[in-house]
Amino acid sequence: MIDMDAVTAILRDVAREVVLPRARSLSEGEVMEKAPGDLVTVVDQEAERILTARLRELVDAPVVGEEAVAADPSLVKVLRTEPVAWVVDPLDGTRNFVEGRREYGVMAALVRDGETVAGWILQPEWDRAYAAERGSGAWRDGVRLRRDPAPTDPGKMRGSVLSRFLDPRARRHAEAAVPRFAEVGAGSHCSAVDYPLVCEGAQDFLLYHRTLPWDHAPGTLLLTEAGAVARRPDGEPYRPGRGQDAVGLLNAADEACWKTVRDLLLL
């Protein structure tokens, strides 16, 4: 058993001590590119360093952090080879943070035998804390979350499609289907914000192409524990241990919604 509240407290400490003091106050030299268009800041680096140390005090297991994997891509393999591992996104939505927007978060997940067994999402700007434990439910600040079914008519469904990394043919197909829905956006560019929007009913579906574990391990568990659906386009459940080579992830409010969105956007 993991102390869920202890992990939430660690995320809040890091947000208070490292993240929030630098919001809208970064200097030019504190923002770097680790790849073309992919930003990293001193906040990402410092937050991950502290999270890694603090989480290992709770469960002494390898930590697959976004910035650690950027430095050593082979580290992500521990999600398949080790019985237990942490997954950490120290600053989800880094570009939003750099641009002074509020849509960013701090996330962590505990993975056992390649599957997420616990996940945490903190939205520092609003001090909202989400947590989910496999078999025990999903929660926001102590309040149980249960996702209501989506409308059955796609013309009343709202969602987000992150098409940036889709191949051109798939992108054209998805974009042609967008008018069938009530509203389709590109998301907030922050999983720590977008997953809770589906969980709490503000949106009905989320379609991703890239499935990096630090972006999706916490949120997919939050959704499924609230009664929603998180699956690959082939119907397989999302598992962070499958690695980064498995692409595509469709999250939806319920089974019927998932099938409708898949049939319209992906088939």
TrEMBL record:
Keywords: Magnesium, Metal-binding. Its cofactor is Mg(2+). It comes from the Bacteria. Mg(2+) binds at E66, D89, L91, D92, D215. GO terms for molecular function: inositol monophosphate 1-phosphatase activity; metal ion binding. InterPro entries: Inositol_monophosphatase-like. GO terms for biological process: inositol metabolic process; signal transduction. This is Fructose-1,6-bisphosphatase. It comes from Nocardiopsis flavescens. The lineage of its organism: Bacteria, Bacillati, Actinomycetota, Actinomycetes, Streptosporangiales.
